[in-house]
Amino acid sequence: MDVSTIFGSMVFNETVMQERLPKEIFKSLKKTMEEGSALDLTVANSVANAMKNWAIEKGATHFTHWFQPMTGITAEKHDSFISPIPGGKVIMEFSGKELIKGEPDGSSFPSGGLRATCEARGYTAWDPTSYAFIKEGSLCIPTAFCSYSGEALDKKTPLLRSMDALDKQCRRVLKLFGKDVKKVTSTVGPEQEYFLIDKKLYNKRKDLMFCNRTLFGARPPKGQELEDHYFGAIKPRIIAFMKDLDEELWKLGILSKTKHNEVAPAQHEMAPIFTTTNLSTDQNQLTMEIIKKVALKHDLVCILHEKPFNGVNGSGKHNNWSLSTNTGENLLEPGNTPEENAQFLLILTAVIKAVDEYQDLLRLSVASAGNDHRLGANEAPPAIISMFLGDELTAILESIMSGKPYDKKAKEVIKLGVDTMPAFPKDNTDRNRTSPFAFTGNKFEFRSLGSSMSISCPNIMLNTITADAMCQFADELENADDFNSALNALIKKTLNEHKKIIFNGDGYSQEWVEEAARRGLLNLKTTSDALPHFLDEKNVKLFAKYKVHSKTEMEARYEIQMEEYCKVLNIEVMTMLEMVKREITPAVINFAKDVADSALSMKNLIGNAAKTQIELVKTVSELTDELTDKTKALEAVILKVKEYDNATDCAKFYTASVIPAMNDVRAVADKLETIVGSEYWPFPTYADLLFRI
Ligand code: ADP
Ligand code: MG
User: Which of 228, 278, 641, 689 is least crowded, fewest Cβ atoms below 10 Å from its Cβ?
Assistant: First the structure.
């Protein structure tokens, strides 16, 4: 396979555009892509025609506006290119209008009440900053999805808006350093974790099929304790899958770079090379879809859930994030000259301020029923948001804050904009895996994301909160009489105000929980604790100021997410009840009956024998009764959900009452699994699922 020829072969990228578009059209499109200038219809017509011809040559027959509704997955509705002509024939057509705008019926997508059914029409609008591509015979056009009145109904629109806000504010800050760049974009490289399970085994488990996670399952004799899976040799069946996966991703221009086994058995990771946040978000959505599809071809099922198995690590997504100029400068790269360092420190300080002021937004941007199983469970970062900067960088910041010399020998106080920052080795960047938000040399790694979620929301937050800090800095410094002294004072003051967010220690320790509370950091343990903060006044103001979300949009999003949380849990409860009543209980009764029969026949044979059987029947019978009781209790609790008429109270009830009742049912069933004969157990166990590949 020649990777360089297949790479991007299914993408209408810049090379293709340059080859196929008239010069003027290409220039005008590029201007739109780079500077966001409006696209006129002649340009759109020409682009559409070139796209269509290219797509048809590649075997495509349809086109679709590809969008990202609030379901968290992508949506597409395919139209063929055919257009009838006299003589019962067709020609293949695709107009600029069809490229720019679509009108899918939006009524079946979650809108949080934004769109009354009478105006169910939604609009999709082409996002020219993300390339069109071909998937399964359809030309896919990345689009934003809005309501009739222009409110965002998707995860892309606010992301683009947040990138705009960040661009504007960063350029103001760079101007202060004498740099007149055209564009600043945030960049992201998301590391994607996932599990692969044999399809035949998967199909035997209703919990995996309906909930993407196991609701039952005792720990297998072997788990991840030998630590022999992480980076271990990859099994041939998985290698074959990964090879196919790479090929499919490469065809779509996705820079799949790294693949390896993860910590848990059957767990793996794919990391792409970073790109702009917008493209990276689109590509991560595609990646998740393609991993699932390719897995099926290999009779495997990909599980993207954050916590498919109790007792083994769950899956996350590390969101590596930085800021980059159109001139190729990484704004989080420490510099070599005093001026560069001053700029770096100002931007770093802006991020520190942003994360501290908006801990709540970062926390809630990764909140979901699935991710609640991970955060704070000693395998993923804790639910408390803090920042890791590493010892050296922290020491530099401390010296700035206190005005005391950084290097005791030199006895010199660092003066920003004058001194070069003491070089700090790149590899000091941490292997502290417990921090939610770690500086890793020239980027931040936000590690709290769940594996199945769109990366859009966390990046909307990162972009917007950083834009806000940059804006405040620019406001202050643009009016300064003496730039350097104002800069020094601003950095010093801001760091002192926000240093409480910096923590380089062990995030899993109980001491940190206590220390964080003393520092006044938030500890929002669950989705129902975190999400309500979205609508806090300061957050509504923030998003309104940068035109990322209107208050109405925020309220709608809040509703959607709270409802989703409740729905996910409701499906889990229904699946659990079905599995207990129709699978586990009958299996256990069967087993008990056979043991009891055996006891009886043994007794007939040798008098008072069959001690083992009798004890076993007793235990099984007691546990079965307990299972029935706990199941009844769960049924009673779930009935009470109806008493709550708003999503917030309902979600809080699920967290406080339904989840504990589910845990009770599971605990008894898992105990039974360890004593009931294996051929009686109604579905594959953890040992089967995790080790039979
Ligand atoms: P590690 O494996 O130590 O976490 P890597 O250097 O392999 O670090 O990077 C991990 C991810 O971070 C990759 O997806 C990479 O492309 C991404 N990354 C690197 N530099 C940047 C950057 N400037 N902006 C965003 N992501 C980045
Ligand atoms: Mg990493």
Answer: 228
